[in-house]
Every structure is written in structure tokens, then in C-alpha cells.
Amino acid sequence: MVNRRTTSRRNVLRSAGALAAASAASACGVLPDGTKRAFVPDVSAAGEIRLSVWGDVSDAAIYEEVLDTWHRRQNKYRARAEQYTGNYYDKVLANFAGSIPADVIYFQGWHFQPYAESNVLQPLDEFIERDGLQARWPKLPTFRDYTQWRGRTYMAPVDGGSIVMLYNKDIFDERGVPYPSPDWTWDDFVEMVPKLTFKKGATKYYGFAQAGGWLGGYGRAVGFMRRNGHVEWDRIVEPTEQRWQHEDVVSALQFTLVDCLRNRWAPGPSAVAGGGISFATGKVALTPEGPWYLPNLHGPLATTKAGINYDVVGLPLGERNPVRNSWSLVHGHVMSAQSKNKEAAWDLIKFITSDEGQEIVARGGRMCATPANIKNIWAPIAGKAFNFSHTDAFADSQAGGVVPMIMGQGSPISADGGEPLDSVWTALELADRTAEQILAEYGPGVQAVLDDYWASRARSN
Amino acid sequence: MVTAAAGAPSEARRSRWRQRQAQGILFGSPLILGIILFWLGPMLYSIYLITQDWNLISEPAFVGLDNIRDALNDTALWSSLRATAYYTFVGVPLQLIVALALALLLNQKMVGRSVYRLVFYLPAMMPVVASAVVFNQIFNTEFGILNHILGVFGIAPVNWLFAPHWAVPALILMSLWFTGPQMIIFLAGLQGVPKQLTEAASIDGAGVFQRFRHVTVPMISPTILFNMIVSIIGSFQVFAQALIMTNGGPQGATRFLVLYIYQNGFEYFKMGYAATLSWFLFLIVVVFTAMQLLVSRRWVYYEGGW
Amino acid sequence: MAVVGTPTLRPADPQTAGLPGHRPHGGRERSLRLVRHIVLIALGLTFALPLLWVMSTSLKAPGQVFDMPIKWIPDQPRWANYRDVFTMAPFWTFIVNSVVVTLLGTIGCLVSATTAAYALARLGWKGRNVVFGATLATMMLPPVVTMVPLFVMFKEVHLIDTFYPLWLPSCFAPAFYVFLLRQYMMTIPREYDEAAMVDGASNFRILWQVIVPQCRPAIATVAIFVSMALYNDFMGPLIYLSQNDKYTVPVGLVWFQGRFGQYWHLVMAATMITVIPLLVLFFVAQKHFVRGISLSGIAGR
Hints:
The structure holds three protein chains of three kinds. By secondary structure, chain A is of the alpha+beta class. Chain A has helices at 2-28, 57-73, 88-97, 113-117, 125-131, 141-147, 169-175, 186-195, 214-225, 247-262, 269-274, 342-353, 355-363, 371-386, 392-399, 421-430, 435-460, and strands at residues 48-53, 78-83, 104-108, 148-149, 152-153, 155-162, 164-168, 198-200, 203-208, 284-289, 310-313, 328-335, 367-368. In chain A, the strands form four sheets. A five-stranded mixed sheet of chain A has the order 8-9-10-7-11. Chain A has a four-stranded antiparallel sheet with strand order 3-12-6-13, sandwiched between helices. A two-stranded parallel sheet of chain A has the order 1-2. The model of chain A is unreliable at 1-10 and 21-44 (pLDDT under 50). At the B-C interface, helix 1, helix 3, helix 4, helix 5 and helix 8 of B face helix 1, helix 3, helix 4, helix 5 and helix 12 of C.
């Protein structure tokens, strides 16, 4: 009996001691090697605002430098960065729900609309007017769709991208196929893909590859689907009707997905997901991608040690009606309506969209958003950093780019889950039926989602 | 709690009873508080949410019973129920068989017994995120170890996570790696089987299988019931793997109920609808557990007699 | 319905009860044992496969990760991967955070669950059975039902982005552990209680000086289970924590994977770092695990 009592007392003392030690360690807030980082602040100053950062490698570095520079340029305001990975938007939503959103929040241009609708974002029009910064919001339809909602401006364009076609010069040389020219057409593209698929020794090379999954796939396919001018919705912002059964849509998806996968001109989605076969590992001749992909091809973050010998060209033009219609993305920062220090937040946004801020963004590997900045700031940096010459392809695509679709809150299509388009994509990737059959089958489902969306809007208005 | 005698003794008894009452509530207070704060309160609030349309960021709006009506008409809900049922009613029996088999194998004094126990429990200990990442690679059609090993036996690569009819079997297969906890519970149950019984049976001439069927199984039937109930409840709530590995795909094959609830709440901004669906889930769990307990009277043997 | 022997009380020695008795070492027995070992080794390898793959990949150089056929032991194990994980990410901070949350929650759980189990097992009071039933009922409630209301509740008291929502609920006698401890306490003979009561001990003293010392196996089991659950908790920190310097290890791992995902070798090293404390814990505490569950009677009653 005595033994048990002292043993348990000893255990209690032991755990209390461990607890004390742990608390002491955590109170220090400094890593054992003594370094401090922008992401591990040891003191939280009053009046400090919070900036939320997307989860990619390059973003952490970019915004660390942005905040450092901004702090050096002015003494009035302070900010602290928080990077969310995993599902970025879940974190944003949780923070809004907990009434603790960051003051300045990064958003992709098609994601903030539900929040704007709920009036938790601060419209920026007054700030823009007051400081005369209208030039930073280009008067292009894409930019209007991506930065405004119901006539008010919410997002400041910071970085973006547009989809261009990357091509591996070594594979083209190996197969004796001439590089694509800026006015190449859909027919040229269809013809060259099989030619660029071959086996050399034990290694298989593919003519084409495309990112898998619905949102990545749909965005990259938009340029092909709309190549002759047909749009797969009746309108871009809050469409009421789906038009996916058109021959251009069908032929685009039939070739890039069903045919390429069936004939093994493109690697299957699991090979792409596994990470081993991609343009970045030198196994693919053509791939539609955006500027975020470039760091994988050259430089310190490149996937292969030697990098890839490549260049870029705009997406192929339509064979009947050569309209350039590439997916143009705009990302940027919004301000929370609940921010307690809106002046500080605006000052930070001003800095990020200034030339100096944009240069930091460009050097970090993200492409600037506005065509002017792309041409003047990003192109020289990127061309050198990522070793390619046709930088104008990106600027042109961004200027002439399109938005796939934007919807307000409540519609599953606007969420990254994307039902039922998600299922359309996996069916296409399975490649056991024709695109025509698949689109015919899922068309009514897509229309039903749109109808439900409008019904619920009618109910709430 | 009856006080029959009148006068002084009943006074003392009543005050003793009051004191016992106070002590009981005092000692039980963390539990009672916990139930109210973390279960009852939130449950009532979530019932209230059923009648609301709320997107978490603006004010809730009253919609009466619309959420329930929408749920009954929702084809996606029914397909998610089917997927969940498939996963549960195929997966759980397999898990129990594997767990019991492992427990039987380990139910001996032997060299390396604790090492084997650790190895079998290992996958269940890894954080779910880590397992999802690892198994995603293992199931990869072109580069995964699983297809690699199948290839050694001459089997063509299976399109595990990308073909609609292979996705749920893949997740079921994956769940067999996490049967460690069930195995431990079976082990504990097996160790409660008195050896006099098995010895008596073998003296009577019963073979290995007969001993198993007629002595071991009845003696561990409470354990089987416990594992069955817990596993079914757990399988109804499969979520993390579906979110991280397939995100409900391909073509909705793995959009299990909890994932669908999560999507409705956090991706489609429909908290009221999500609350409705989660109550649906609760009812299903209660019904199935009650059914199992009812049926259990016919096949579960309790030694202490309950 | 089945062949049933004479009813017996709790077996005296759980380690050997139910095990086959000694048999003569015939050739047939030996070959059966051999078969058993082969089967066990094959199964063991299968179960260990994922972790082995993680371990192997964590020591590889970036280019080797996807080489087929798989090279289980890389030519030059790159232990530097582990050092890289710690220098590229504040993993040390994550570990400290996890330890703090786990310790606080485990101690809170042990104290509250033991007290509550005593109230249910030993004390007689009106409402005891109702509370016990409610406890059982909460074990069946899917957590997703209370997820949002709990978040709203913590938000109202301004505890979002702190550690409190992660470990405070554990201090309120979580149902599963109360159940386990109650079952176990009910198997302790009441003579000890009665002896102490005759000596004039209060309930409090009976609990701490009579019951608890005899519950050590079950308490050890609870301590192990709850610390594992707290350490592995992912949804909690994901929902409640915003700042990177507050992240616990599971969220830290996802953060690391999101940030450095293409570096599979580093992600796997980070995964190993996450898992090692659990391995140590289990190996050290294995005995308590199994004994605790079996003696708690959860399996048999």
C-alpha cells in the first residue's frame, strides 16, 4: 500500500516538473538555434495588422521581403504575416466565422465574391479615389470581373497569370518538329502531339500533358474550348445557361483528354499526380501552364538539376475563327471590413501594388497582375531568372485573357469541389467514353445546379 | 430513496441522503458540466441551425423546415449514403476478421510478440494526414508500391483511386491497415477466455476449429459486439481520407456523408443544411446501434450476466 | 446455443488465461509454430510497409524518390534531410506546442475523468444513471454535429487562436475515458472502501488513497490514449489556430507539406519526425495498454 502511494505521488511530481519545463520552453518563443523569422514573431505590437499569405513556397519568401521592405520604408504601421496551407480557404472562412479575419487577405479573383456579398469585405473605391490610383486597376473586362462585385471594387490586383503553351525544345529537336509559331492553329496542335510521343530506350516521352482535376483542368482547357469564340456559358458572371454540348467544346475535350489518354499521347492522371511524369521532369513536349510553373523549370527550385530547355508560346488559335482566348487569372488582396486599422491595411495594399512591391513579387517567382507590370517589371526578371525568351506571350495572354466563370455564394460550381463539373472531368480522364456522350449525360446536371442557384437567390431576395 | 420511519432517524437519513446527493453531484460536476457545455448546448444550437440558412459570415435567416425538405429531395445525399453504406458494411466485417485473425495469431507467448503487436498497431498511430499522403502514393496507378507488388504476381495495374468502381475498395483496403486498436481489444478479450474451458473442450475431443467456434467465439462475443458497434460508428464517419486523397471523387464515388456535410458547410457556405445533414447522420447512428444492441441479445454471451 | 463451461470469476492472471497449456514438443507442433511465424512475418512486413516506405524515402536524395524498382535502402542515406526539416520550418516550435497542449489536456483529463468515474461507480446519488446514460449517448454523437456550435461558443469567449479550445474540453471528463475508468472501478472489491470508511475517511480520501492506486493500469491506459489523441488531433488546431507559431505538429506537418510538397524526401522526413514520439510512447507503454484494456473489463462485460 505504501509503495503505491509514493509511486503515484512521484508520478504526479514528475509530470508537474515536465509541465513546468514545457511551459518555460514555449514561453521563450525563440527557436533553439536562436534565429527569429518573420513568421515567428516574438512580440505582437499594438496596432499591428495581419496579412494572410497563400501556401506556396514562393509566397512565404515574397511576403517576408515585402513586409521587411515596407517596415523599412515607413514607421507608422506594422504588419505580421500568417501563411495558411492545406486548404487556404477553409482557414479564411473559419477566421471570418470566428470574427478574427486577417486585415489584408490574399484571394484568387474568383473566390472572394461570396464574402463581398455578405458585406464582410471593405470596398476600396474611396481609397482608390482619394489617392488617385485608378491606373493600378486596368480597364479590361477580365480585371473588372475579377476585382469588382456588383459594381464596387474589392480586390487589388497583385499577381496573376495566364495560360500559355510551354514546349520542350529538346523533344522538338529530337523529333524534327518545328517549334510552334505565335499564330499556330488548333489543327497544327492536333497534328504535332502524336508526332512528339515516342519511346527512347526505357523512357517514354509524351506529346502533351495537362494538370489533372476539375479546376486546373477546366481553366487550362478554356483556351481550347473557346478557340473559335464560343463560350460554354451564356455569360461569365452568374450564368443562367450551360452550353457545353457545342462542337468546339466537345472537340477540345475529346482531343486533349479522351484521345490523348486513350492513345497514350498524354500520361494518365495518376502518373501526373504521382509527380514523376511532367513537363518539369522533361518527359513532356507540350503543356499548358501559367507563370507559377516556371520556377520548376530553371533556377534553385527547379525539379531537375539541369533544368529544362524550353520556351513559351500563346495557346493555338481557332481553326475557323482565330480568337485568342486563354485563361487569365488575377489574384490579389482584399481588406476585411472588420479591420481595426484600415489606413494601415490600405497603406500595405498600396505598397504591394506599387512598382517596388511588384518587383519583389516578380523576383519571388509570381507574375505581376496588370499587363503593364508584366511587360515592364516581370518580363525582364522572369526571362532571365527562368531562362526563356518569349515573355511577351504572357503579357499578350493576360491582356486578351478570359475568365472561365464566376458565381456568388451558395453555388457548388463556384467552390473548388465543383460538382458536377468535377465528375465530368474524372469521367473524361477515365477516357472510356467519348466527350460527346459524357457532356450529353452531365449537361442536365450542370444546368440543374445553375437553376438551383437562381432559385435560392430568388428566395433570399 | 424511501424514508419510512418517522422522527429523528428519518431526519438523519434525509441529511445523509442530501449529503450523498451533494457529494455525487460534486464529484460528477466536471462530467455534468462537460455534457452540458460540450454536448447538450451545442446539440440544441445545431437543432436551431436546422431552421436557418446561414453562411457563417452574415446573419442567419429563418427558413423553417426547408432544409429538411431539400435533404429528402437531394440526390447527392442519397448517393453519399450509398457510398457510406458500401464502405461501412463491406469494410467493417473485413476489418473485424483481420483484427481477430491477428489477435488469434498473437495470443501466445512467443518470441517477438511485443514487436509484432507494435508493428500491427503502427499504422493506426500515425496522424491521419500522414497516412493519407503515404497511401496516396502507395495506391498510385503507375508509381505505387501496391501495383508494383501486384505486378510481381502478374496482375495488371489497378486504377485504384481514379476509377469510380475501384475507389471505395481502395479505401476499404486502406482501412485494414488501421485495425490495430481493434486487434488490441480482441487480444484483451481473448485473454479473458479461461483456459479451463478450452482445455475441457479439447479433452472432450474438440478440434481447433470446433474449439474456436463453440468456446472462443461465445466467450469473446461481448468483445465482438463492442468492436462491431465502435467500428460501424467510426466507418459511418469516414472523412479525412476521402477529403485528402480523392476529395469525394472520382465522380462522387467517395463522397461519404461526413465529407458531404463538410462540403456543404465549409465549401458551399450552407451551415443550416450541413446541420440538418449531421442530424440525419446522428439518427442513422442511433438507429443502427440500437438495432445491433437489440439483435445482440440473441448471440452475445455475458459471463457476469448483465 | 453454444458449448459453455462452468461460469468463472475474473481470471486471476490475465497474461496466461486463455492461452493453450503446454504441449509436448512434437514435430507437428514445431512446424505449426514455424508456419505461424512465417505468416506473422509476412503480415508484419505488410503492415510495416507504409512506414518503411516513409523511412526509406526520408533518407533519399530528391531525384531518387520515384525510381522504379524501389530501392529500399538508399546508397547514401541522407540524414541531412532531417536537419533540413528543422532549419526550413519551425518544427521545434510545433513540437513544443504539441507537448504543452498534450500535457495540459492529459493531466486535466486524468483528474476529471477519475473523479467523474468515481461518482458513477461508487457514489449513490439521484440522477447517477441518467448521467451515465448521457455519457454513453455522447460517445455515439458524431463530432461533426457539434463542430460549428463549439466554434461559435469559443468565439463568443474570445478563445479563438489560443490553445484553450484544444485542451479545455479534455478537462471536463471526456465520455470514453470516464466509461473505461468506471468499468474498471466497478471491478474493485468494496472491502477496501468499507475499511477506509470505517476509519472515517471522506469520499475524497477514499478516491485518492484507496481507489486511484488500484486503478493504476486503467489510469495508465487512459493517459496513453488521451495523450495520443491530443497529439494527433488535426481538425481542432486546423479550425482554431491561425498563427504559424502556434501550430501543433499535425497541422505543422500539413503546413510543411503544403509549403514544400514537391520535396517528397523532406515531407517524409517531417512525417517521421511526427511519428517518432508515438513510436517511443507505444513501445515503452505497450504493457499498460493491453493490460489496462483487458482489466478494465470493457472487452468482457
